[in-house]
Every structure is written in C-alpha cells, then in structure tokens.
Amino acid sequence: MRIEKRLEEVEGLIKELVHLSDTMAVIVEGRKDEKALRELGVKGEIIRLNKGESIFGTCERLSRDHKKVILMTDWDRKGGHLGKLLRDGLEANGVQYDGSIRARLAILTKKDIKDVENLAKQLARLRREAGRGVGGFK
C-alpha cells in the first residue's frame, strides 16, 4: 500500500476514534496507551486495565456506567488475549463494544508497531515519509 494511502487511512481512523470517544469510553491496557491517545486528541474517558482489578470485575463495573465502549488493546499476543477476555466479559454484562478501529489500525500498522502507545510516533513517521512533516493532529 502506498504511504500516502496508509497515512490517510490511519488519520481517518484516529479522527473516528477521537469523535467516538466523545460519547464512549475507550479501554486501554496502561498509562502509556492513555498518554498516546491524549496526544492524538482523545478527550473523552479512557479506562486503563492495569489497575489490579480482574478483567471480569472491570467488565462488571463498566456495565454500571456504560452501554458501549471502544476496545483499544495492543495488537500483540497479550493485547489480543486481553481483547478476547474483554469481549467475553462485556457481552456477559450487556455492554456493547467496538473493536473495529483497533482491528483496522492493527492491519495498517502491524509491520511497524504492535501497540497503542506508539501510535503518535507512527503517525509522525508516516507523515514524514509522505512529505507532510509531523505537525499536530487535526
């Protein structure tokens, strides 16, 4: 895939994530993931998993306050496993989830990065390669 096309698709997915996060909580693995999403413009609620609570406990807690969430676990083996546990736990607790942005970002960036925390750096790299400079995300 041409670099310009990849950049356009990654930017589009990040814009979609930013927009959806206004009304849906985003679930990430840890603090660095949250920081990266904030750098990309996500202003809504971000829920970190690595806080000592079980996945099912997290899903039960989420069901009290959220009807739908966005899953943004990493696309490595651990993130895939966490994603499956979350999907199962959320379904069991009646919470809908959107994993499509994560899945599409994984496909577009898998050969370069494997995690959420490096999305901002990857976007900057794609912009440099496309001759656009790194600039802020808009």
Describe the fold and architecture.
The protein is of the alpha/beta class and 138 residues long. It has one domain: Dna Topoisomerase Vi A Subunit, Chain: A, domain 2. It is 54% helix and 10% strand. It has helices spanning 3-20, 31-39, 55-65, 77-92, 100-109, 119-129; strands at 25-28, 46-48, 68-71, 96-98. It has a four-stranded parallel sheet. Helix 2 (31-39) links the parallel strand 1 and strand 2. The longest helix is centred in the N-terminal third of the chain and has 18 residues, at 3-20. The chain is elongated, with a radius of gyration of 15 Å. The mean pLDDT is 92.
Low-confidence runs = none
User: What does the main sheet amount to?
Assistant: 4 strands, parallel
- The overall strand count is 4
> What are the secondary-structure elements, in order, as H or E?
HEHEHEHEHH
CATH class: Alpha Beta
Task: Indicate the mean pLDDT.
Answer: 92
